[in-house]
Amino acid sequence: METAQARNKTSSLSGKTSTLSGGATMIDFVAVAPVRQSKLADQLYEQIMLHIVNGSLDVGEKLPSEAQLCQLFSVSRPVVREALSRLRADNVIASRRGSGTYVMSKPTPELVRLAPSGVLAELLRCYELRLALEGEAAYLAAKRREKDDLVAIEKALEFFNNYLGTGDDEEGAEADFSFHMAIATATKNALYVKTLHMLHTTARDGIKLARQLSKLRSEPMDIVRAEHSRIYKAIEKRNPGAARNAMRSHIDNSRLRMVGQLLDE
Both 195 and 75 in a single domain? Predict the structure, then answer.
């Protein structure tokens, strides 16, 4: 059954036509209204993503040019470039020199159906920030952790494993985030804890969405369990480099799984 949220998100993908400068006509690629609110690049990112998910733009199809996108959505070229850059980072599109930009993959419709309206780009960008922040946090935790820190991380890991694969996505996301907070605490740098705490809501929502998508795809939870275990073992063995790599791999894999780019491991 289609939810009201899904209907709201896909209502812009109508069968209208749009005439661009130079007389070119595009089918099924129109903006309901000019993009004028805050976070313009985020909004344009999500509108293009919706067209790809909806099928208005198929895999292998060429996107409108930057100039055409500016005209369609009434935004500046820097906004268009930032939105396209983010889509490239998520492996959804790719640019070919002298040819243009093409759709490389089609994320699952559940990605935009389940994501809170208007924040999909923010959720994915949070993963990018966490990649840098938590990779270094794991590195420092492996160097500086004390016995009590390791106990706290181990307890958080057990708590996380207890909720892995259960139907309680809210509690499961909190348990996952608690594991990461325990590692931040082990850095002995309060700014890591403070920064991660500031990301709590966005990070938790991203983790919750990832859990929901994994269950819909019937992805094995053992993959995520093993990623967390590798992080813990590297910290336990006081191996900073391995801890950093394990954390960065886990967070990047989570982001790629969310957009459907890492389904087979």
Answer: no
Does a structural domain hold residue 3?
no
DSSP class of 61:
P
Q: How far apart are CA 207 and CA 120, in angstroms?
A: 12
Query: Which residues span the domain enclosing 92?
Result: 11-106
**Cα four-point dihedral sign 234, 235, 238, 240:** positive
CB-based contact 48:64 (threshold 8 Å): no
**What are the tens digits of pLDDT across the range 81-135?**
999 998 998 889 999 988 999 999 888 888 878 886 678 888 888 999 999 999 9
The three-state (H, E, C) secondary structure of 158-190, written as one string: HHHHHHCCCCCHHHHHHHHHHHHHHHHHCCCCH
Residue written as tokens 């005439």? 19
* Helix (H) or strand (E) segment spanning residue 42: helix 40-54
**Cα torsion angle, 216, 218, 221, 223, sign:** negative
Q: Which two tokens stand for residue 125?
A: 């960008």
Helical (H) or strand (E) element with 95: strand 93-96
pLDDT per residue as tens digits for the range 159-182: 999 988 677 888 999 999 999 999
